[in-house]
Amino acid sequence: MPYTAKKNFGVEILCFISVLLFLIIAGMLYLFSAEFSKLEIVLLMSGVATIAVGAVTFTHRKHVLDVTHKNTKLLFELADTKLQARILERNKTLMRSIFNASQNVYYVFDEFCVCQGVITSRDDLLEFCHTAEPTGKKLTELFTDDLADTIRRALLKSLDCKRLQIVEYHVEHAGKDFWLEGRALALPQHGCGPRKIVWVARDITEEKRNREAVRVLSTKLALTEEQQRRKIAVELHDSLGQILAIVKMRLNLLRRYLTEGDELTLLDSSMEQLGSGIELTRTLVWELSPPTLYALGLVSAVEWLGEKYAKEHDIEFIIEDEMECCIWGSDFKIMMFRIVRELMANVVKHSNASECIIEFQSRTDGLIIGVHDNGKGFPDRAAGGVRKGFGLLTIQESVRHLGGDVTFSSNCIGGSVLIFIPFKQTAPALDMEMSAVTGRYDG
Q1: What is the dihedral of CA 255, 256, 257, 258, to 10 degrees?
Q2: What residues contact residue 221 under an 8 Å CB cut-off, 6+ apart?
Q3: Most exposed among 114, 136, 340, 391, judged by the fewest C-beta atoms under 10 Å?
Q4: What is the pLDDT of residues 153-196, one digit of tens each?
Q5: HEC string of 171-207?
Q6: Rounded to two decimals, what is the model's pTM?
Q7: Is the C-alpha dihedral spanning 184, 398, 427, 362 positive or negative?
Q8: Where are the domains of the chain?
């Protein structure tokens, strides 16, 4: 809009000059030409002036329309630009709020693992990670050697594979423990120059504590469940089992006075059903809580369970006991038996195996349990790992809560699970230290 008046003034000057020019030409014709009459000259002058004015007016009108169209377009573009500016500012505010709420530390490393820059919404999080200013520093200058090596492997693997790498690591600050989750992702490369990787460190200390609390609660629930099962089993054995046994003894005494007849047949039938009830009660007692686990120990209970599964599912379970110690801690035995029972149930349900070997070994620092079958192994191996179902994940969480570790492997021979549990673990939810072993053993 600011140049419209200037353009209009120029068109008006052009119109005035054109009219004046044609008037001069007509006057010269009137003064110096004898071939035209005065009327012809006037008509010629008027016609030429009219044509000139019409041409200038048409040009002016067209120019006004063009200017109006351009100004309207500029107004729409200006309004759209202001709208986009408002949207951009709103998005910037939203992203700034999200960034401040995320409380992450964002690093940019080059392919030589040198920090090119760092931004964060939490300055205290930088103190948790390292005390030095990270920009321009190598990994070994920011973290301990072991942690720097772990982060370096994640950065380089992300750079090579172009895939997200996630690592959990532990740091200490002011005598307190903090857990962080690091995510490495290679940035797109534009042109020449060193390749770059972004490393996002997130504080997961509270999340880790919550997970640990859930894990502890799960263990406590499992122990409580086993205690209730044990209580019910004892009640069945001591109360109902004894009552049924006494009734059977009295029926046997009564049978001595009956020699023949329908009464004897009815009594024999009742005693047979009573015997089935006693056997069912005994089976329920063993299913709820095998007395062997408490009387003879973990290995004996597993042997009994293997015999039971062998009869029901036609799978041979071979128990190899190479432990040089006895496991007496009741809580520890319960957890170990639940873990082994879950593994044996997985073999029965999913492996299609005909033989399973369960090994128990002891070391100076812990217990090793190996379960090997000749079945089809673990399915869906992908990305170097085994896709675990709910049962295997439960086993993994239970083992890790006890401070141990578990590995799953599979090959053409079958599947294998190897578990290591340290002899002593601290269980926060139980407010005590669970001792797994009592006795002597050679290291």
Answers
A1: 50
A2: none
A3: 136
A4: 999 998 888 888 888 888 887 778 888 888 999 888 776 777 88
A5: EEECCEEEEEEEEEEECCCCCCCCCEEEEEEEECHHH
A6: 0.51
A7: negative
A8: 4-99, 103-203, 205-289, 296-443
- 3 state DSSP class of 358: strand
Q: Return the structure tokens found at 27.
A: 């006057």
**Given its phi and psi angles, is residue 377 left (phi above 0), alpha (psi -120 to 50 degrees) or beta?**
left
Contact 342, 394 (CB under 8 A): yes
Written as six digits, the tokens of 418 are 């190897």
Report, at the CATH architecture level, how domain 103-203 is classified.
Answer: 2-Layer Sandwich (3.30)
List the Cα angle 42/46/52 in 5-degree steps. 145
Residues 205-217 have pLDDT tens digits of 888 888 777 777 7
Which range in 175-179, 216-220, 352-356 is most confidently predicted, on average pLDDT?
352-356
Is CATH 3.30.565.10 what the domain over 296-443 is classified as, yes or no?
yes
CA distance 165 to 236: 54
DSSP string, 82-105: HHHHHHHHHHHHHHHHHHHHH-EE
Residue 296 in tokens: 């003879």
Residues counted in the chain: 443
Give the other-Cβ count within 10 Å of 260's Cβ.
Answer: 7
> Both tokens of residue 21?
């020019």
Pairwise CA distance, residues 126 & 120, whole Å: 8
